[in-house]
Each structure stands twice: as structure tokens, then as C-alpha cells.
Amino acid sequence: MSACWRFASVFPSEAGALSGAVMGAAATLGYAVTSGAPPRSSGVGRSVALVLPVDLASRTNGRRRLGLLLCKPDLVVQFDRDDAGRCVLRIGSATAGEGQLAVAGRELAGRICQQSVYHRVVLALRRQAFTIIERWEDGQGTVTIRGRLPVRDQMRHASRTAHPQFSMRIDAVGEVTVDAFRLPPEGVRRLEAFLHGLFAPETATVASPRPAASRPARVAKTRVHAA
User: What's 50's domain CATH number?
Assistant: First the structure.
């Protein structure tokens, strides 16, 4: 039996998880990570601010800055806390225009979301004894994880196999698509229960299982908007 689910992007809910996701996104996009104030030589002439849906009010002890600084040639990124306790990604440059900065900022915000979702998924799979067979990233920035149900569930459902039983694709903005294949109905229900426990608290709409060959319904993505 085959099935397919899709889940909306979910940003980390607190500063600790955000810091780890920022570090992962920076490594993916080639930013150098440091701390403190931007160096005087950075020469930031203009900047664009994007508000991320992350609540920092209870995790930063009143500090206005998260403490991470990302740098690329002619790009500097800081993470601040606004008056409402939200995280503000502020990207600046001496030469790039506002349009270029907005594109770079949105790309970074998407990768931060992707890294948060990826690490959360991998941790949950390991905690519940799913087998991760392989992981890779394609040229579009989508990370794919292929795996099997826990051995105890395979034995219970008489579905033990060395082949992958599901595939999770996390795109460059953190949207997740899950395909199940070679699973009996009980196995599909087991995977669906795992997914609902992992994503349902943050995503009110979860696609129902359907044949993998059909196109899954789209779910609204978490928006990142200009400050």
C-alpha cells in the first residue's frame, strides 16, 4: 500500500532551537558564523529586516540580540528581538540593493526553517527506533531521508524488509512531503500516527493518506514577512 502526506513549514519555537538551525543554515549557504557586533570594516550601507515567526520573549532574558552574526563577502546578518518578542533577521550590505537583500534574506530564512525541521525529524526517528537507510541533498536544496519502520512493527505487521518503506523530502523552505510504499495498511497507520505526533501541534492541516501516484494537496506555507 502507498500513501502520501504533506506538511507546512514550521519554524523553531524557541531561541535554543533557533541557534542550532541558524548554524546549520549558515553552513549550507556558506556563511561564516561569529558573535558580537559587525566588524567596522563590514561597511553596511543598507539593510532589510524580515520577521521570523519565532517567540524569543521568554528565552533571551530581555536581550535585544540573539548573539549570532553571519558574514559573507558584502553581506552581514544579525538576529534581533523586537518589542513583541519576535525574532528579526536583519541582512545588510554595502553594495547590494534592497531587492537582492530581500532574496538573500528569504533564502536564509527558508534554510533556517529547513534545518529546524530536519533535525527534529531525525531526532524523532531515532527516538522511536525507525531505521534511517540514507540521506542526501539534491541540487535544489531538498533533503531526502529514506527509511523503514521499527523492526518490532515490521514483525508485528509481517512486513520485514531490507527495502525503504518511506521517504521524507524537506524542501529549501522547510515544507515536508512524505511518501510511504511497500507497507501494509497497519504499517501506513503506524507511520501516520508518528507523523501526526511530530507535526500536528504546529500544522492544523495535515494531508490525508492517498495513493502516492496522485498529487498531494498543497498546504499553506509559514510566511516570513518584512519588518
Answer: 3.30.310
Question: How many separate helices (H) and strands (E) can be counted in the chain?
Answer: 4, 11
Longest CA span, the chain: 64
**CB of 3 within 8 A of CB of 192?**
yes
pLDDT tens, 48-104? Answer: 999 887 766 655 555 556 678 999 988 999 988 888 878 889 999 988 999 999 999
Task: For residue 216, give its domain range.
Answer: 3-11+118-226
Q: What is the count of structural domains for the chain?
A: 2
The CATH number of whichever domain residue 156 belongs to comes to: 3.30.160
Q: Name the 3-class secondary structure at 58.
A: coil
DSSP string, 127-184: HTTPEEEEEEE-TTS-EEEEEE--HHHHHHTT---SS--EEEEE-TTS-EEEEE-S--
The three-class DSSP label of residue 197 is helix
Stated length of the chain = 227
pTM (predicted TM-score)? 0.78
Domain boundary among 95, 112, 129: 112
